[in-house]
Amino acid sequence: MLLRIFVVAFSICSSTGLFAQSLKPFMEPDVQQQHWVDSVFKKIKRKERIGQMFFLRAHTNLGKAYEDSVAKLIKTNKVGGLVFFQGGPGRQANLTKTYQSISEVPLLIAMDAEWGLGMRLDSTISYPYQMTLGAIQDNSLIYAMGREIARDFKRLGMHLNFAPVSDINNNPRNPVINYRSFGDNKYNVALKAAAYMKGLQDEGVLVSIKHFPGHGDTDVDSHGDLPKLNFTRERLDSLELYPFKELIAKGASGVMVAHMNIPALDSTENLPSTLSRPIITGLLKEDLGFKGLAISDAMEMKGVTKYFSNGEADVRAIMAGNDIIELSENTERAIKLAREAIKAKRLERSQVIASVKKILAAKYWAKVGQQPGTDSSSISAFLNRPEAQALNQKLADAAVTVLKGDSLLKIFTPSENTAIISVGVTDLTVFQREVSISFPNSTNYILSKIASQVDVDRVKKELRNYKQIVLAIHDYRKRPLSSLDYNNTLKKFIGDVVAMNPMVCLFANPYTIGGLPALEQAGTLIVNYQNNDEMQRAVAKVVAGKIPASGRLPVTVSPGLKTGDGLQYFPIPPIVSGQVE
What we know:
The protein is elongated. Helix content is 40%, strand content 11%. A 6-stranded parallel sheet has the order 5-4-3-2-1-9. The protein has a 6-stranded mixed sheet with strand order 10-15-14-13-11-12, with helices on both faces. The chain has a 3-stranded parallel sheet with strand order 6-7-8. The protein is an alpha/beta fold and 581 residues long. Helix 1 runs antiparallel to helix 2 (31-43) and helix 6 (139-155) packs antiparallel against helix 16.
């Protein structure tokens, strides 16, 4: 009965053209939204309302038994939403339809998709990491990316993206944020996060800016332990909190709270920020005036369960002011304990009611009652549409950063004999193939990250025969950390080749420059931040003089290479016969 009432309500609203208007935040309800929220809330049994605050983990790559276990929890615990992880887009669309059909109140579907669906799903586009986006000077491209990702979400029946990351990565040793951040400049981070957020929200997708109040300056991963931030309140106000303040002022619909112990904000020993009422209710909601969804980071992480086990963390997270409890270790147990806390007067019923109504308001805004089509062939074509792929390449082109030596770029001659070396790989790279097209008199060399001394000596000997050398450094790891996992033989080889005045092109985390000091001595150094086909094609176009380079370094990697560094490179146009100089 409840589902039928929900769908009818949506059809009435849609017929009035309500959603054709400019989208205002769900936190600013109109009469129709408020009426719908109140009517649905009244239909939910009192003892089942707390379930709306819990979001379950969902996969489409773990088999039928796992999928059935999620379905059972949806039915028995009346949860408010799902967070999808690894799997395939067609399978997820079909499974979402199944899950929605068994839920009395339609589910809010979320995903952690910082660089698009490709972060979680096969056969979909991966946009650049946020560190790469941090180098781009045209923020309208990032806004456009946000809109394309939102369109993908809606096509799969999703409503909430746990993005953008709004942490300032001012600690190169950060093991968990790092390349997921726009960089170490608070203004750049805030501007780019705002562009991404606006793109998502303008297309009707909720956001969750993260990880409040700022996870950038830690060297502990909260998935495995509880980080501690020993900074003053003044430091936090002026630095870590800056992007969050800016995005909240611009209408952020959601904020994810990190698992961190922050004595300056709450002196309780070993208390994660996710369980702190002074941080969530006091700082976030009262001081900063945030009216959207306060969302806990995953409650299965060791950063919260290490000191609060057996479901106590879930109860405390609600007491602290979180509206959504993401990925409890045991959802059934957590709901039961929360009900007991209400009876024991530990948890105010009025607070739960306010959170549940806020979640329902977000569901109304995100139009969770509308089901997309699930034809797998049309889904695949849509998610890989040409305009999205073209935008992905534009983003890669715009990120290329010439850190040193644009003069060598200008005198590189296509007809000259050229050696193109890719290190850290085992096969011919896209970069080599693309450069070879423009440099027909070239030879390609490959050295793996465990290259032997014999292999290295052979290549070094042959390099004496070339007048032009291009040295490409690749990191093929899924997590591009701050140092390369090359053996010492290959690292020494890089230093030896740099002495030959090559054009060095880095397809890796920019922090890796600090571990390869020879790179700072290179006459020419070009960076494109990560190793994928789009990034390699972009640099190949710069090397060939086909496009300019306008990127800027988003983080400081050494005393000589600081945030904002980068040369504006414009290729010299070829002289056409008969052209007057």
